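Appendix B, record 7
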Amino acid sequence: MGILLIKHLADEFKFVNLGKEGKRIEVVKNLPDEDIKHLVSETIPTEPETAPKDEELKFSMLKSRDALELARLAYRAYGYTYASVAYLPEKLKEILEYGYLEAVTVRNSKDEFIANLGLFYDKPGAKVADSGMAIVDPRYRGHNLFKRMKMQAIEHGKTIGLYGLYSESVTIHPFTQKGNITLGAKETGLLIAFTGERVTFKKINDEGLSQRQAVMLYYLKIAEEQERTVYVPEIYEELMTRIYSDLKLNRVIHTTKSFKSIVEMSGETSLELSFKPDFNSAVITIEKYGEDILPILRLRVKELCMKKIDTVYLELPLSEPASMYLVPQFRDLGFFFGGLIPEFRDGDILKMQYLNNIFIDTSKIMIASENGRSILDFIVADRESAG
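Structure tokens (predicted):
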């Protein structure tokens, strides 16, 4: 009953298992200072449907004072179907000021706010930015703005010392995927049921989606990073070694064939479960493996399934040898390969995915490259053999 209430009333909640330190539940509800509906509903442009491609545009970084204009932009592009902090100006100001967000913005010749590309950080000072919240005014679709904003983000990342940019590209169309590829980003995975069916893209799919939408994962290296030792599950060795090679990351890779030391998992597991109602999905992040990892994970997944959560993600630290030994047992629970996220939370992450009786027609997933198609084929096969 508790999760059911939170699912409908909260914007986010986290269940944190601290081992011997106990447990903690964090419930987040974003309350705007004022209802923005009357502000954004008056901003539907009356200009021609398509803007001239030779128009002079201005690129800059997002300021706190731009927060309301970003909310208006999100409304123009998606109505109220976009699952994002973009609709919450006060929240935007807060995470901007505390260093959890930066963004590349675009204004047209009339000084209208027409495009945005967010750079989200797991913590202030993180070396990798999650490139998301890419929003373009419908009048300016086809103007190559995603690629141009991404180029600005790369230059900004170089100036502040980032290692790279991580991003999740929708597969309802190939545009953002192609933009990432032409800039040198490489596919690192695919989450096949990431967003809900209610998301609409004006001028692309005004009727909404017929199923949950997949996103292709990308990583774009922009600077040399420190050497790391990673422990890769044998079943994923070929794919993950290829991904590391494509990314040209400085890694020492171990598998069960090369690592012979005994791995001990004593004490209680430390994990964080974060639930996002907008996506009807949950993320379980393993922080420390304990001897109770399998029963506690089995219990959490069962609870989430009973509450009709559509997708569950499991994030495993590849810096821990236990990850490579436990993946076969996680697959027995129904988890399958999702992707590799470099330099995330002070190390690389293996992201696995679990679908709660969700049917996905993979023929509807639009993939922009052969490499991306091979990753999709691998994931489909891994899902069929898991559980």
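Remarks on this record: The chain has a mean pLDDT of 87. Residues 2-29+226-385 form a domain with the Aminopeptidase fold (CATH 3.40.630).
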